[in-house]
Amino acid sequence: MTAPTAPVLAVVEHHDGRPRASALELLTAGRALGPVHAVWLGDPPDDAGPLAAHGAAVVHVVPVPTPEAGLPASVAAALAGLAEATGADVVLLASGFGAKEVAARLAHATGAALMVDASAVERDGEGRVVTTQQAFAASWTLRSAAQVGRAVVTLRSNAVRATPAETPGAAEVRVAAPARPADPRVRVVERTARPASDRPDVGEADVVVVGGRGTQGDFSPVEDLADALGGAVGATRDVTDEGWQPHDVMVGQTGVTISPRLYVGAGVSGAVHHRGGMQASGTIVAVNTDPDAPIFEFADFGVVGDLAEVLPQAAAEIRRLRGQA
Q: Engineered SS bond to 236: which of 84, 130, 156, 212, CB 3.0-4.6 Å?
């Protein structure tokens, strides 16, 4: 197979002018597919250096002048125009609710293959884009090959370890056509900012501590262990339905799909809908008072015990060991 020449567009998620960890993972994955172009939605980045360091040859800045221009349909239309203008044959996005809607609309608009929640992406000997995915609550691993000339892929966070390019260059920053509202009948009437937190985002974190119904609504042991580990806090559907935690931290088939390097489930039974959102985790630790809980069937380490006793002890020991380092 000859080296691909068509660019790969990697849509960069960012916060406060800096790329998120998932964006650098996309750039790393994209380097194996062809020349990587980053797509930055909104005001230009403060510093394109991190993008260039991870392989971006070009940074396309797509202005988003109004709230309506930032909605999924509008973003998809802008990306479709950019893909056509650059001749890109792959568009990579980080998996998430909004990104998946953008990806579906983009694939439909451009006639591309759509591949979601990939844990790996590569080209085969014929140059086709091939992804690896989990299905049926992660009990099956499958490989999918794009049968058309363009592919839109959403990649799970932590599926690829972000690594700088061996010979990075300076990225050329280009200002593209701005995103425009896709439907004049749609108007953003209110936007509520998410409360600030020092913890990483649950969808991107290397370590996630999830609390289930066994917490009885008291998440202080879960939060304490997450803070000791420098991780994020997640929850099961039962917890969010009870109102004990917000829905944006719900892990499962109908919530956030995660693949951290370490997952700790505290008071989590391991029902199939939750399992489907976390079984791609690297190491799974379970704490539950019920020795017959389904989560023990697929956990790497299990503790049969009261999370209110086990988690504080674990957090204290982790802090003690880190204090000795």
A: 212
